[in-house]
């Protein structure tokens, strides 16, 4: 079965830029979506179709996807961005989630 | 605004079934697939399947086939997910989520319901 691999944890200082990766075979050939989940809350979509931001998501969040790796980048990271981040893609008509990355700010 | 409201927490015994509802508002219920995702405590997200509210057609990964039933009542804009043969490892938070694209079975999920805690305990 298809797998998406994320680093378990990433840390960043406030105001700095951080990137969270999501790796999978030929991932660049399909769309990737990113969700933010804070403790005790439901996931929130932060990036869709590789690079697009839903309304209400700050422009410090951006995404890219090429080759075997998709990347979520947060510029000027704020303490409120501390959360778990999950990538998601589709393979053979089935949803695949990455294992999640805990971002510590 | 678009909102999904789920039923409350449940405690079930091993072998029992649980049925969770997901009531939608703020959009045309029949136009967007509803997906179900669960999260075991301390772990990641796991997709359980989807339902097309317009046709009632469903799809789920092999892991849950035969054990999950997804239905809907369009008259009250509500989707249901019933999981049978509960085991201790089914203890999790169960989320429903609206598909991001009208009439599309794939794509992203937005928004999500608040989650329903299901505890399997003897």
Task: Give a structural overview.
The complex is a heterodimer of chains A (105) and B (122). By secondary structure, chain A is mainly beta. Chain A is built from no helices and nine strands. Chain B is built from no helices and eleven strands. Chain B has strands spanning 3-6, 10-12, 18-25, 34-39, 45-51, 58-59, 68-73, 78-83, 92-99, 109-112, 116-120. Chain B is 0% helix and 48% strand. The A-B interface holds A 31, 33, 35, 42-45, 48-49, 54, 86, 88, 90, 93-100 and B 35, 37, 44-47, 59, 61, 95, 97, 100, 105-115.
Keywords, separated by commas or semicolons:
heterodimer, A: 105 residues, mainly beta, three-stranded antiparallel sheet, 9 strands, 0% helix, 45% strand, B: 122 residues, seven-stranded mixed sheet, four-stranded antiparallel sheet, 11 strands, globular
Q: Helix-strand pattern of chain A, N to C?
A: EEEEEEEEE
By oligomeric state, this entry counts as heterodimer
Structural class of chain B: mainly beta
Average predicted confidence as pLDDT of chain A: 97
Q: Approximately how much helix is present in the residues of chain B?
A: under 10%
Shape of chain B: globular
Based on helices, strands and strand pairing, what is the structural class of chain A?
mainly beta
Concise account of the structure shown:
The complex is a heterodimer of chains A (105) and B (122). Chain A is mainly beta. Chain A contains no helices and nine strands.
Would you spell out the secondary-structure blueprint of this structure?
The complex is a heterodimer of chains A (105) and B (122).
Chain A: E1 9-11, E2 18-23, E3 33-37, E4 44-47, E5 61-66, E6 69-74, E7 83-91, E8 94-97, E9 101-104
Parallel strand pairs in A: 1-9
Antiparallel strand pairs in A: 2-6, 3-4, 3-7, 5-6, 7-8, 7-9
Chain B: E1 3-6, E2 10-12, E3 18-25, E4 34-39, E5 45-51, E6 58-59, E7 68-73, E8 78-83, E9 92-99, E10 109-112, E11 116-120
Parallel strand pairs in B: 2-11
Antiparallel strand pairs in B: 1-3, 3-8, 4-5, 4-9, 5-6, 7-8, 9-10, 9-11
């Amino acid at each position: 079965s298809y797998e998406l691999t994320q680093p378990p944890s990433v840390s960043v200082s406030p105001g700095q830029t951080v990137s969270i990766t999501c790796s999978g075979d030929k991932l660049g050939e399909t769309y990737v979506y990113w969700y933010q989940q804070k403790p005790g809350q439901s996931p929130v979509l932060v990036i869709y179709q590789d690079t697009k931001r839903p309304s209400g998501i700050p422009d410090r969040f951006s995404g890219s996807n090429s080759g075997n790796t998709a990347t979520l980048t947060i510029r000027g990271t704020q303490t409120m961005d501390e959360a778990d981040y999950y990538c998601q893609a589709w393979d053979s008509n089935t949803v695949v989630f990455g294992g999640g990355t805990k971002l510590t700010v | 605004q678009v909102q999904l409201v789920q039923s409350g927490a449940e405690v079930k015994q091993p072998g029992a079934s649980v049925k969770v509802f997901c009531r939608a508002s703020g959009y045309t219920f029949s136009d967007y697939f509803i997906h179900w995702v669960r999260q075991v405590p301390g772990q990641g997200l796991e997709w359980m399947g989807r339902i097309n509210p317009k046709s009632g057609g469903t799809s789920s990964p092999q892991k849950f086939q035969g054990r999950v039933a997804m239905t809907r009542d369009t008259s009250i804009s509500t989707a249901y997910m019933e999981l049978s043969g509960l085991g201790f490892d089914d203890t999790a938070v169960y989320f429903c989520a609206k598909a991001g694209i009208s009439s599309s079975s794939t794509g992203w999920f937005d928004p999500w319901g608040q989650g329903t805690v299901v505890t399997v305990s003897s």
